[in-house]
């Protein structure tokens, strides 16, 4: 067996859950899609109502809501109440990780009112927003002004709070870094009820650097100031097919945005947007985009593709046509481009509704898409949820750029998941060591894509049913994830914690650095008030006993260090 040949596996006997999953589209069509559309519409009306208010009125309401949060926190009795959590229902989260910590005793704080855009400051080029503002909402407001967040995640439902406390990336991250790297300031309610504004150069700078990836375990985020950039009306997108082995595909992907002469900060050589989709072990399409004006896009001979229309082919399938037609260029309205993967949820929509990519469905019912991820989770039940954990993969592997080829070969051999999404991002060398950090001494190697101040990483997005599952073979999903996590630890990679994790506490802190995070937990009183980030990310149900033991262990540790 060659290095890239997948291992032979025995056939798996089907059980009742297999058939339920196979015909789950019936529930999605008649229940999930109509409710999703209704919720999308009601949310849109709420956003429009908010936008009609003056910034002064929104700020007044924000201040009142912050006071309610502070009052609620001060009502908590540390000796009798559980650890603090938001009141959001577990199934509402967009991530695939089970929010099982809310099944145990906890003290709820309601943040549902924090869903307003507070200010678009054109002078400072900053958007001040509340944590439940989502990407669709902010792009709808900012794009008509020819402004956008420096990093704006593709799926409409992803919220500012989730992208900051967790993880967020987009095709512009090779320039600006991860979503959290574009934040200018955080407004945080601490465990003792204090409201502080943390920036990189004020007295709360340690908190500023510790917030990303902390999963809301240092304090309650109530607003953020995020960098804006000027944009144009269209994206000039070039589709370039690549044929070769996985190492050759990886090099073509690197060459699409990282000049070999190391001139990574030259806008003439580096595109505004980058992504690559790998459709098989030998075929991929590299896409590079540059902002273009309305005048340029409408010049004679240019092709304009409004991919946001409900009846249009799903974007990943449209991009795949480059493998047959060859390299081509087209112009896409900027907001349509930002949310190009929303309707089909990348390619997960093909599994949820196998026929939804057909023209007849897109034309008649495409306007109902996509189903809300939260409703998909709410209607799946425990057995189906466990089935997906074993028979389905939704993971992101953040790896150094020079190791992308190795990561692709590993994924092919152990999971056989296609398509694969590749998106580069900078990992900055910061004044302090945060939970995620570049390889020590990376700047000395002068590798392709790196600069003196940032190492280039890549998100290897693995989302779909593995090849063995599609062929009806035995597949150990939990074991594959454990192997992936071990591979990431050995190769200085990281696993975003929105996904299902099999990490032990020891391995969690081998992957992530605990120094600054634990310092801030102690300094700002989070220990004994908010659960630790590992405990919050831990797979499986949390019992009352586990909560009490975790609280006791954290408090004892904190008291010992104080003494």
Automatic annotation (TrEMBL):
Predominant cellular place of this UniProt entry's protein: membrane
Pfam families to which the protein is assigned, alphabetical: FAD_binding_4
Taxonomy, superkingdom: Eukaryota
Coiled coil (residue ranges): none
FAD-binding PCMH-type domain location: 52-231
Record's keyword annotation contains Hydrolase: no
Name of the protein in its database record: Delta(24)-sterol reductase
């Amino acid at each position: 067996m060659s290095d890239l040949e997948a291992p032979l596996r025995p056939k798996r006997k089907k059980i009742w859950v297999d058939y339920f999953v196979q015909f789950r589209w019936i529930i999605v069509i008649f229940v999930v899609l109509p409710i999703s559309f209704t919720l999308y519409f009601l949310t849109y009306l709420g956003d429009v109502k908010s936008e009609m208010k003056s910034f002064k009125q929104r700020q007044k309401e924000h201040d009142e809501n912050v006071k309610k949060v502070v009052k609620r926190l001060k009502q908590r009795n540390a000796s009798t109440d559980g650890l603090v959590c938001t009141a959001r229902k577990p199934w509402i989260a967009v991530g695939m990780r089970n929010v099982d910590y809310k099944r145990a005793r906890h003290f709820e704080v309601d943040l549902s009112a924090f869903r307003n855009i507070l200010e678009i400051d054109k002078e400072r080029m900053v958007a001040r927003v509340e944590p439940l503002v989502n990407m669709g909402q902010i792009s709808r407001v900012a794009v008509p002004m020819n402004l956008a967040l420096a990093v704006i995640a593709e799926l409409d439902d992803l919220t500012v709070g989730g992208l900051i406390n967790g993880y967020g990336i987009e095709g512009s991250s090779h320039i600006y870094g991860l979503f959290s790297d574009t934040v200018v300031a955080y407004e945080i309610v601490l465990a003792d009820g204090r409201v502080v504004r943390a920036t990189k150069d004020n007295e709360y700078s340690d908190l500023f650097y510790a917030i990303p990836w902390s999963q809301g375990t240092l304090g309650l985020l109530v607003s953020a100031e995020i960098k804006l950039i000027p944009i144009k009306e269209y994206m000039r997108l070039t589709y370039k097919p690549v044929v070769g082995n996985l190492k050759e595909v990886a090099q073509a992907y690197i060459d699409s945005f990282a000049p070999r002469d190391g001139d990574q900060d030259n806008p003439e050589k580096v595109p505004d947007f980058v992504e690559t989709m790998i459709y098989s072990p030998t075929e991929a399409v590299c896409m590079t985009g540059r902002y273009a004006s309305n005048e340029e896009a409408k010049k004679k001979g240019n092709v304009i593709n409004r991919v946001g229309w409900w009846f249009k082919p799903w974007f990943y399938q449209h991009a795949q046509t480059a493998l047959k037609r060859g390299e081509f260029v087209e112009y896409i309205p900027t907001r349509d481009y930002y949310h190009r993967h929303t309707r089909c949820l990348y390619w997960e929509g093909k599994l949820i509704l196998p026929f939804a990519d057909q023209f007849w469905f897109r034309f008649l019912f495409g306007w109902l898409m996509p189903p809300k991820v939260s409703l998909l989770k709410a209607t799946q039940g425990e057995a189906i949820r466990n089935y997906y954990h074993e028979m389905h993969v939704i993971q992101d592997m953040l790896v150094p750029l020079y190791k992308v080829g190795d990561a692709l070969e590993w994924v092919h051999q152990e999971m056989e998941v296609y398509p694969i999404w590749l998106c580069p991002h900078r990992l900055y060398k910061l004044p302090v060591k945060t939970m995620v950090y570049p390889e020590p001494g990376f700047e000395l190697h002068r590798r392709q894509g790196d600069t003196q101040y940032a190492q280039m990483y890549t998100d290897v997005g693995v989302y779909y049913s593995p090849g063995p599952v599609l062929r009806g073979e035995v597949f150990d999903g939990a074991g594959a994830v454990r192997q992936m996590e071990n591979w990431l630890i050995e190769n200085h990679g990281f696993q975003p914690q929105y996904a299902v994790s099999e990490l032990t506490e020891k391995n969690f802190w081998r992957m992530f650095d605990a120094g600054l995070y634990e310092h801030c937990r102690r300094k700002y009183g989070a220990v004994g008030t908010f659960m630790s980030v590992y405990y919050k990310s831990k797979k499986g149900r949390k019992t009352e006993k586990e909560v009490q033991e975790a609280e006791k262990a954290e408090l004892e540790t904190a008291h010992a260090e104080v003494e």
